[in-house]
From TrEMBL:
Keywords: FAD, Flavoprotein, Oxidoreductase. The keyword 4Fe-4S does not apply. One of its GO terms (cellular component) is plasma membrane. Belongs to the acyl-CoA dehydrogenase family. One of its GO terms (molecular function) is flavin adenine dinucleotide binding. It comes from Streptomyces agglomeratus. Residues 217-374 form the Acyl-CoA dehydrogenase/oxidase C-terminal domain. This is Acyl-CoA dehydrogenase. Residues 26-107 form the Acyl-CoA dehydrogenase/oxidase N-terminal domain. Its cofactor is FAD. It comes from the Bacteria.
Length: 393
């Protein structure tokens, strides 16, 4: 069993053989992956040591103190947060070996082809079809709100392979090469003015059966792993005190006494405490994750993150008065990352509106908490046993 001393000494060896000051960033990240220090809880040979997840904090602290580059999880959030845990759990050895290293290093960006115009909250209603043709699948359909599709090399994709079964069955999970013929990515401008996400049209895309993830018809089960991890990755990333949205507001409060009012002071203090409670609850959730896959509690974290971001960014706009209404850039940028703290108050205010929609809406997450955490009766579902092709649309 790997322990703290061993992990620390492996980290020191990596730093000695690849001094951060003189090593190219990508070379350093590749060496870190090969040393098993990327995600220590992953298996040996796949960037890990098969060690307890909690030891990652030891590695991260040593590397940060030495000024080593990190793999910028924001840019590659979908790969790290959603694709990787799903591939690790359901992938073949070949898929894991081929895909995880470039994913972690950031050489290959991932996107998520789940949502469709008629299948968002009710994701199991999806209509994108995959039809078997020898050792390939031919995929036709339309996806929407696909973050990072414009920079992605790979996508996790769910498609219907048997429309005669009820909607949660007959779905299969694929790994789609975004450079394949028939994949068309069109920008979608959002409330911030940017096109951070896209529509993706799939026309006769041929996906080899070797890029299927999990058994035919069991894509819904595979997708649950992705979705549970998505909520933790959106709501529960590790941040220092005042490292999230509350940071810029607290800074403005300290530096600009002329903006202060008694009422704003009271609200800022309430939100500061809520932000700190959410941050520490996230830390607790990560400790629980040491024991395995995330549970429905991650939905609670994601809910809290969305509510807080919207309240804090609203307070910030009020605090800044007329200045808060200024917007820094209305050109249709196509960003690779969502930079909450590096932009203006107006950007934070507008972008946080998406927090209660992306990764599952707050209303749907409340349903999950009610049913799976509190054990309350589930929503009535009349379409559970009807073949997907017979559902009214
Ligand atoms: C910034 C952003 C990035 C995104 N990135 C991606 C991505 O990369 N890949 C991807 O696949 N998707 C992505 N999405 C899509 C996102 O997951 C969906 O928008 C979301 O699941 C909601 O689906 P919908 O938009 O179809 O809304 P709908 O499902 O039509 O919901 C409309 C409203 O009805 C409510 N509602 C629906 N069902 C219920 C219910 N049972 N009980 C109570 N209320 C209900 C919803 O909460 C919502 O308020 C992104 C969305 C955003 C905003």
């Amino acid at each position: 069993m790997t322990d703290t001393t061993e992990v620390r000494s492996l980290t020191k060896e990596l730093l000695a053989s690849h001094p951060p000051a003189t090593t190219d960033r990508t070379d350093f990240l590749k060496a870190r992956f090969d040393a098993g220090l990327a995600w220590v809880h992953y298996p040996v040979g796949l960037g890990g040591l098969g060690a307890p997840r909690s030891l990652q904090a030891v590695v991260d602290a040593e590397l940060a103190a030495a000024g080593a580059p990190d793999n910028d999880p924001r840019r590659i959030g979908i790969g790290l947060g959603m694709a990787a845990p799903t591939i690790l759990r359901f992938g073949t050895d070949e898929q894991k070996r081929r895909l995880l290293r470039p994913l972690w290093v950031g050489e290959e960006v991932w996107c998520q082809l789940f949502s469709e115009p008629g299948a968002g909250s009710d994701l199991a209603a999806l209509g994108t079809r995959a039809v078997r043709d020898g050792d390939h699948w031919v995929v036709d359909g339309q996806k929407v709100w696909t973050s990072s599709a414009h920079v992605a090399r790979w996508a996790i994709l769910i498609a219907r392979t048997d429309p005669t079964l009820p909607k949660h069955q007959g779905i299969t999970y694929f790994l789609c090469d975004m450079t394949d013929p028939g994949v068309e990515v069109r920008p979608l401008r959002q409330i911030t003015g940017e096109a951070e996400f896209n529509e993706v049209f799939l026309t006769g895309v041929r996906i080899p059966d070797s890029r299927r993830l999990g058994p035919v018809g069991e894509g819904w089960k595979v997708a649950q792993t992705t979705l549970m991890n998505e909520r933790v990755s959106i709501g529960g990333s590790r941040i220092p005190r005042e490292g999230g949205m509350i940071g810029p507001v607290a800074k403005t409060w300290r530096e600009r006494p002329e903006l202060r009012t008694h009422e704003l002071h009271r609200r800022l203090l309430d939100l500061w405490v809520d932000a700190e409670v959410a941050r520490l609850a996230g830390e607790r959730l990560r400790q629980q994750l040491v024991a395995g896959q995330p549970g429905p509690e991650g939905s609670g974290m994601k809910l809290a993150f969305a509510r807080l971001n919207q309240e804090i960014s609203g307070l910030e706009v009020e605090l800044r008065g007329d200045e808060g209404l200024l917007y820094d850039d209305w050109t249709m940028r196509r960003p690779e990352l969502v930079d909450f703290t590096g932009r203006d108050a107006g950007y934070r205010y507008l972008r946080s509106k998406g927090n209660s929609i992306e990764g599952g809406t707050s209303e749907v997450l409340l349903n999950i908490v009610a049913e799976r955490v509190l054990g309350l009766p589930s929503e009535p579902r009349s379409d559970k046993d009807i073949a997907w092709k017979d559902l009214s649309r």
